[in-house]
Amino acid sequence: MAATGELLTPQEYISHHLHHLQVGSGFWAVNIDSMVFSVVLGALFIWLFRRVAVKATSGVPGKLQCFVELVVEFVDDTVKGIFHGKSKLIAPLALTIFVWVFLMNVMDLWPIDYLPHTAQILGIPYLRVVPSADVNITLSMALGVFFLIFFYSIKMKGVSGFVKELTMTPFNHWAFVPINFILETVTLLAKPVSLGLRLFGNMYAGEMIFILIAAMLPWWSQWFLNVPWAIFHILVITLQAFIFMVLTIVYLSMAYEEH
């Protein structure tokens, strides 16, 4: 239902929920809703973890401190098991990615009409609340990881070593330099693309299922499908945050290896 009270067809309802609040058009369009929610959730993560760190006690910890310590220890163990170099960036980066992506994913568990309908009452025509269902957000994060891959590759191997890695593997012979370069370039570019599209595809599909349930079924029967899907989706959103974090660590570990 629109803010004016008019009834929408299922097609119009689905289209409305998949439309971003945008500024600009075409290639230069900016999805304001995705930007706002991702920044707010990132600020929430920083505030919450800093608050726990400041108030941490060596005595009997509270439930929130126990939860944060559990998350930090889990991420730290994951990093130690994959990344064998020495870097002060990798563990904080992994923690940030895991918690931030999880918070963006968990927005998919909000009732599908609650925030968009509230926004319409306030005069905001469109609102999508799941930043990780926006390919611009996921590919932007993957692009950041891509730049770190370049940074660590050049830092550890030097420019000549990095170029040699692109041109002399997998076939270690000068005659195969063009073929090696093409293969290694495609492999390198596939890392951020697959990283961003995997998260986007899973979260977009999850969001679409919630929208389809709301569009096709009357309100009194939606919970028969919404509740089981939401319970299963908790596993999906956690797993996607974990996969994004693990692949980031793996890619940076590969870039960090000198051989």
What this model shows, in words?
The protein is mostly helical. Helices cover 71% and strands 2% of the residues. It has eight helices and two strands; from the N terminus they run H-E-E-H-H-H-H-H-H-H. The chain has helices spanning 10-17, 32-54, 63-82, 90-106, 114-121, 135-167, 177-216, 223-256; strands at 22-23, 30-31. Strands 1-2 form a two-stranded antiparallel ribbon. Strand 1 (22-23) and strand 2 (30-31) form a beta hairpin. It is globular. The N and C termini lie far apart (60 Å).
Spatial order of the strands forming the largest sheet: 1-2
Structural class: mainly alpha
Mean of all residue-level pLDDT scores: 89
**Percent of residues in beta strands:** under 5%
Q: Which of globular, elongated, flat, extended, rod-shaped describes the shape?
A: globular
Helix content: over 70%
Helical element count?
8
Question: How would you spell out the order of helices and strands?
Answer: HEEHHHHHHH
Number of strands: 2
Give the termini separation. 60 Å
Taking all Cα atoms into account, the compactness measure Rg is: 22 Å
Sequence stretches where pLDDT stays below 50 over 5 or more residues = none
Main sheet: strands, sense, barrel: 2 strands, antiparallel
List keywords for this structure.
259 residues, mainly alpha, two-stranded antiparallel sheet, 8 helices, 2% strand, CF(0), transmembrane
Layout of strands and helices, then pairs:
Layout: H1 10-17, E1 22-23, E2 30-31, H2 32-54, H3 63-82, H4 90-106, H5 114-121, H6 135-167, H7 177-216, H8 223-256
Antiparallel strand pairs: 1-2
